[in-house]
Amino acid sequence: RVTRAIASYMQPRLASMGHLAARYSVACDEDRAARLAGELGVSTLSLHRLALGWTGSSYALPMRDSAGKVIGIQLRRPDGAKCCVKGSRLGIFAPIDLSETGLLLICEGASDCAALLDLGFSAVGRPSCTGGVRLVCEVAKGRDAVIVADSDPPGLRGAVGLAAKLRLYCPSVRIITPPDRTKDARS
């Protein structure tokens, strides 16, 4: 009974996240998307595939569950500071056209995901170096997975922990890191 009450309370809030993300996406004009793409070194196409939006003062990137439903929105202020819309749940950054088959690359964050999309890979981004494990396992189930770890100690520890879980769901799991002196996939 309590679980149903909580679910019915949360449902309108989660549904409104999808509507809010759609509203922000419409508000993001091409010039604004190009500005962020230039700052991050990624294409506007990859940002649009991630459903980039604009709140009027911050960029907005939806976070999704394993079925692709928007469950939260990460805000990125023009100064680079990040936070989430109130009521958000942490999810994965996934393109709206994510393939359900084939090799899947898993990275940390939306900008790394955009960079991997630019390279032609099917990719999702975790909300942090240790977040999104359950959602990533659900999305990667039955697929070969490559974790593109940040080269710092927390990123490597998070990748090892995720790999241990993914091995229960995926035929093969690999961890790769960027070359020496490179922080992450986007770099």
What does this entry look like structurally?
- This protein is α/β, with parallel strands linked by helices and 187 residues long.
- The protein is 40% helix and 19% strand.
- The chain has 6 helices and 8 strands.
- The chain has helices at 2-27, 30-40, 44-49, 110-118, 133-140, 153-166; strands spanning 53-54, 59-64, 70-76, 82-84, 104-108, 123-126, 145-148, 173-176.
- The strands form 2 sheets. It has a 4-stranded antiparallel β-sheet.
- Strand 2 and strand 3 form a beta hairpin.
- The chain is globular and about 40 Å long.
- It starts with a helix and ends in an 11-residue tail after the last strand.
- Residues 1-12 have low confidence and may be disordered.
Features:
187 residues, alpha/beta, 4-stranded antiparallel β-sheet, 4-stranded parallel β-sheet, 8 strands, 19% strand, disordered N terminus
Tell me briefly what this model is.
This protein has 187 residues and is an alpha/beta fold. The chain has six helices and eight strands; from the N terminus they run H-H-H-E-E-E-E-E-H-E-H-E-H-E. It has a four-stranded antiparallel beta sheet. Strands 6-5-7-8 form a four-stranded parallel beta sheet, with helices on both faces.
